[in-house]
Amino acid sequence: MIDIIDTHLQKRARQRRLHQAALASPEWDSTGAEAAILAEVRDPLLDAQIQAEASVVGALAAQRANLQNAGACLEELIRFSAAPNGLDGLTADLSNLFSPFEILCDDPSNLPLRRSVVQSARDIAAQMNRAACRLSALKNDLNDTIQKDVVQANRDLSDVASLNQQIVDAQVWAGRVAILADQRGQYLERLSGCVNIVATVQTGGNVNVNIGGVTMVSGPETPDCLATYPDANNNLQIQAHNAGARLKLAGGSIAGKISARDGVLAGLQNGLDKLASQLIARFNSIYSAGPANDFFIGNSAADICINKIVVDDPSCLRAGLNRSRKAAPALESFGQSYAQTVSDLGSTLSRVSEDLISSQTVTQMLTNARASDNAVSIEDELTDLQRYRKACAVFSIMRTALYKMPAMQ
After folding, report:
1. Is 215 strand, coil or helix?
2. d(Cα 296, Cα 284) in Å, to the nearest integer?
3. What are the residue boundaries of the structural domains of the chain, listed by start?
4. Residues 185, 114: Cα–Cα separation, whole Å
């Protein structure tokens, strides 16, 4: 039986997948004995490298997905034209508003032109309202998914602690230990994709898990777990529940979502609000009929709208025009501000996409290395072989002792 095990381990030194086989031998019970073939053997160093890279991939993938979603929120404002040097998106819409308004300052009695200006302004305000609403909804969705990720991460932490205990309890059964260790490795890799961890192998087979300097798993115990708390902007941030320490995550999907939400997404929202407030101030300075009759009402992209008095009666626009102020100079500054906001989104998305591809390539290389024969730990193989031999020897002694026992009457 020992020779059978030695031969089988030599043939499957790299990958020993779980299966059951009845082995018949003259030295064994005629009913046969079930032999469990161990799970995949993995190098601890490669496991740690793959876990670290999983955190990088998780963060970049989350960033890219949500930057793409942010771009979709601005789809009405980002429209491209095939015409050479043509004005696109919001720049074109602003031009369609500014140009008639400029003419209207010199021809305030032109009622069709006044109606055109009012309608163009309403269209721009509505676009900004919708973009702001979508960006706000995306931020809320990110907060929701961050909360769900924290719940899943805590489950994985509990599962790792549970497997630590099972591995300690199963030390006498080498096959069982390997299977449990393989399962624990899968949990650790999934956990790494969610949040960057430091997993430390302890004597006896336990793995301790540290997140942001706080111990989350210690052997079979979970002394702490992840929790969320709202910051000043009502955005969810991460802390250690029991320690109360606020955690600055360096990787994983949670960190990627927080980075996208508090970085580019917040920048897009702030840029859009700044654009709306500038538009409101500029037009209201030209249409100087007094605060009660301002052309634009509101303070941000979310609430910008046209004064109902002007909407109901475009002829009111004539009385408020200030001919000494021109709208044209505002077009260039508005266009530059908007273009920079969009450019920042595009360049960030491009960089994140490139980094993600590179990180995925590294992960695949590490996974391939782990799957190769070179990744086998000879020391672990010899240890497992000794365990099998000892188990067989013990079984042989037990069988002999049982046969020598007098039959029960």
Report:
1. strand
2. 6
3. 1-41+376-402, 42-370
4. 69
